[in-house]
Amino acid sequence: MPLWLVVAGVLFASAGMLQPKLDRLSEEAGLSQPDNIPAQRSPWSAVLTVAPGGLRAPAIGYLWIQAEELKNQGRYYDALQKAQMICALQPHFAGAWIFQAWNMAYNISVGTHTPEHRWLWVHNGLKLLRDQGIPRNPNSMNLYRELAWIFFHKMGGSTDDMHFVYKQRWAALMQRLLAPPPYGTTAETLDAFRRIASARLVKDRRVQGRVMIQEDQLRLLLDENPAAAAFAAALGGVGVGVDESLLEAYNRYSMDINMQSVRLLAPKLANDQDRAVSAVINDPVHAAGRDALLAFVRAQLLWNQYKMDPEWMLGLMETYGPMDWRLTWPHAIYWATYGFHVVENTPMESLRRVEALNNSRNILNGLKDLTWNGRLVYFDNPDAPDSPAIRFNPDPRFIETTQAEHQRLLELARTQRLEAEEQNIFKAGHINYIINAIQMLYPLNRHADARALMDYVNQQYKPEDESWKWDLQEFVVKQLNADGDPIRSVAISQIMPAIETSWLLRLQGQEAQAKSMMQHGLRVFNLYQQKAVERNKLQPMELIQADVTSSLLVMPRVREFNLPLLDRARLYRLLPDWLRLMVYDGVTPLLMRQCEAQNEPFAELFPPPPGIEQFRAEVKARQEAAQQQGAPSR
After folding, report:
1. Coil/strand/helix, residue 104
2. Are strands 389-393 and 375-379 parallel, antiparallel or unpaired?
3. Distance (Å, rounded) from C-alpha 405 to C-alpha 367?
4. pLDDT by residue (tens digit) across 394-438?
5. Residue 565: Cβ-neighbour burial (10 angstroms; 0-12, 13-18, 19+)
6. Which of 366, 390, 397 is nearest to 188 (CA)?
7. Strand, helix or coil at 91?
8. pTM above the 0.85 mark?
């Protein structure tokens, strides 16, 4: 026994002698812990960290065994403590960070039952990778992929029963940081973000996050931009700094058109301080200075708090489309591509050469979700700011870039010999995506684009299904009954956009196309109603038209459109009398407030339709009769 103790002592001593050389090699390889990241360790683990490697190895192995046993027993909090020790002892082992982040976001979170606790643990897992794991291991592709997966799957997917809570919380965070993007063309959205990407910012990862606002860069901005300096002085006079407090004041008081779009009511000015801050925020004299300081603060917080590069974000928008960063899917794409950028030093135009097919799937799947959900409708909830009212609408602007990404991955798979030349591992998913894209484009009156997608499938995949050679409208209608029974969601996705497009075409004076679109919606409605079982049937077409039209008149953003008030007044006058009767009382309260806010005469823009009193009496009589019979009225 003494002999073995002597041998063990010699081995430990030898390991200790090698430690300085290992530390030096680690530093040269860029693996030494950045000094701006605080170590989170217990005292004994700190001792083990500086101990010779021969001592650390068995301790770490023991902790891994314990952590795995505790996880299998469902003792997630105890397993978390062990994982924290492992991360402290193995800061440059990516598996330790992935294990702990997964434990937080997936295991511990589902062990809690309130929205607040669920989000706490998912957010903690996200931040662990972003703020600690990746900074300590900037060249680990696995960490970027894992972070992208949390954004895409845990937050952006629907497998967790509280996935909508995660989407709300993230949208609220990004809304406070970036505000809503301009609702307009792709160029307008990119131009707005370009101010942030070009704002003053020192991007040094060695000191990233040490401060939230780089004061030296702020001084340079104020010295070179008199408008920004004047606005900063005015803000200081009402107690607002050039930091997060500026964003808070802007989000609360701004009357910019994009901020008005997320509020149902104007901001309340309860006291003199509110009125003073509101006056400075909305003073047109400070418009240029306000834009400069808002862009500066947002760029600083993106880099220092969220560890995101504004220039890379803009590059993604230029490459893929007008991403709304309040959604989770753009962040999945960001971390997947940023991992390529950092690890491979790959420029945007050369992403196709990156040999990382699994991580590339995060990009493709994120683009697919942006196609179906890329337009976010967001309304503030004053009673619960972290739980805004949100709704996701399709954005066909991502179809083209998703198509290009499919093609890039196909070429990547072939160059890596992951499939035979005649095969395509993406084929089934790609064809399904194209079918859904065609269904989206047709009721938007983009028939040429839809037809081009059909031609692509015929050329690329040569499908045996003869319907791919049919007339475009017949092909679209066929999808309603693709599986033998009419699909309710497919019918709705055709009927409602057809009605919307019809009204918008009428506003543009295109009567023939408007009539064609309304007929398409009616055809799909009749076909569905004929074949659907009774419990799945839709409400009468007149009620669907009234619902869609009411949304266009009152909150067009909910229906994916940006219609100024005067255009909505023109639309109202184009409606047939029966439809104006159905929508008038429902739209009046909100339209009256909107007219008042814009100093427009409601009675002139939206006069009551002829016969409104008689219509109200008939509705009341039907309601009373239905109540007597114990049935809901329509």
Report:
1. helix
2. antiparallel
3. 8
4. 888 999 999 999 888 877 767 665 444 445 667 888 999 999 899
5. middle
6. 397
7. coil
8. no
